[in-house]
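Each field is set out as follows.
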Amino acid sequence: MHKTYFDELQSKNFFKDYSSDHFIIKALKGNEEEIKSRLLQFQPIPINNIAFSKSGMPIVSQQQGLLNCSPESFILNSSFRIKYLHDFFGNSFDDFIKEQLAAGKENYTDEKFFQAMSEVHILSFLATFSSNIKNKIYEPQLGINGKNPEASFEFADGIKINIEVKTPDYSSSLHKKYPRWVQPSVAYDRSYSKLEDIVKNSGYTLIPPCINKIKDFINSACAKFQAVDHIQEFNLLAINYYGHPWGDMAIAEGYCSLMNETTGILYSQKTREELNISHDITRISAFVLYQCTAETLLTSDIRYSWPFMRLIRNPLCSDIDFEKLSLLFPVNRADYLLPKVIGGNITNLKTYIFHSFSNEIVNKEKIYQAIQDAQSLFVQ
């Protein structure tokens, strides 16, 4: 294989603090079998996942196939993408390569590396496919005490986008511990023991929703953004649900956590108060929920994740020019729920109430009603 940008970075000592276990270092050494074995832990198990909507209808999602990632394909794809961003942002991007891409250095983990690659993909998407970019800044100091989002893009007509990228870590997920589980996708009163009893008596373990993850992402983003008018300047919080145990229905959880009518973070003041969500949430113009798999992050392009990518306006920002933002960030909009791709041909469902490991779950109506009751207690 010809010399690549990773070879150039290595010769310039950009990788001198990288762990010998780092994915890039292993790939440069051509350790194909080890790379594939490590990737298997991020490959969804070929199972039927099932979610239940507000109407009680099952939404089945089947995941199959194996990752196909060689050291050569990873190096060629990722080194080109990172070189493009370095050329685009200039020397300000050096620190990303030396720090974030190092993924913990001596405390390296693949999860941290994939989180860094999530940022690479969303920034390269904007840098490559947005037209008439007049100015760009990597890590602009816009927030509290100099805190910064990932980047800012200013266009020729004066419109500006600031973006923060987050990736949940599911490496210690409870889903791996229990063979049969049920997980609500909404905030609910956890003192309501009837819900746990019904789930347990049905032969399942109740796993709490991942509400705290998205709460932490929102609060972190609020500290990095400044107030904007949402007409000429937009703040975007992008969340990549790669590695989520819900498989290719993962962004349904994020959507429901934000948008369900009873306890959705963007619709329920009580939920925001209970979770201690920042009052500065109105600094976030919109959310980008998407899912790049490990294979996409390493060897492919974020555009192949478009079917699992949604732009969601923040309804707390009443003055937002969402049409203008949609033109600048041309992905699927989710004003009226998660579209058809998630859930096959089932459309116009406003709530994905819970998710289960098995499509043979019993008492789903009782579980659904118990979650609704627990939600009601939460918002009282």
The two ends are 63 Å apart (CA to CA). The CA atoms of residues 42 and 243 lie 6 Å apart. Residues 5-41+48-379 form one domain.
